[in-house]
Amino acid sequence: MKKKIRLCAIVAALLLLSGQSLTWAQGIPVQPSYENTTVQKITITHVGPQAVNDDYIRSNIRIKPGDTYVRTVIDDSIKNLYSTGYFYNIRVGEEDAGAGDVNLTFFVQAKPIITDIQFVGNEHIKRRALMKKVSSKVGAPLDEHKLFKDTRDILKKYQRSGRQKTTV
Q: Edge-to-edge, what's the strand order for the sheet holding 101-110?
């Protein structure tokens, strides 16, 4: 399984690199440069369910309409949005607005929000004891690392109590 994943990653990397070298060889820019143009408008587009409102997103974006387009500021804005923990995919689209201006669209894909934590079939260990092992919280964005840790910790608790065949 690991060999297949590694092989796929190598093939994908080679395809990407070969495509870029062809583009550079032809002298065609991969993407137009908007450096030092003025940001006219910023739009937020939610891909999938909306986890947070647009005002929250805008408060974490460092570039504002009327600012000079600087790629590092946009990259910082993307980092700020990721650091909130609410998103697992963020992309910024740029569109020529004419007269030396550019419009930006932030495409954001939110992580699912935890709406409930349930235990089914827990006859031997009380819900309260299991909840002490759970670091995920209702209302928080789903964090796959926390979910894995929660699952592992609950399984260990069952195994320590003599329930070796428990599945979580």
A: 38-46, 101-110, 87-98
CATH code at 38-110: 3.10.20.310
Cα separation, 77 vs 104, in Å, equals 12
Quick: pLDDT tens for 45-54: 999 989 899 9
Backbone φ and ψ of 157, nearest 5°: -60, -45
The CA radius of gyration of the chain, in Å to the nearest whole number, is 23
Return the domain boundaries, the chain. 38-110, 113-168
Q: Whole-structure pTM over 0.70, yes or no?
A: no
Strands 101-110 and 38-46: parallel
Instruction: In whole angstroms, give the CA distance from residue 146 to residue 136.
Output: 6
Q: What tokens appear for 40 in the block?
A: 């006219």
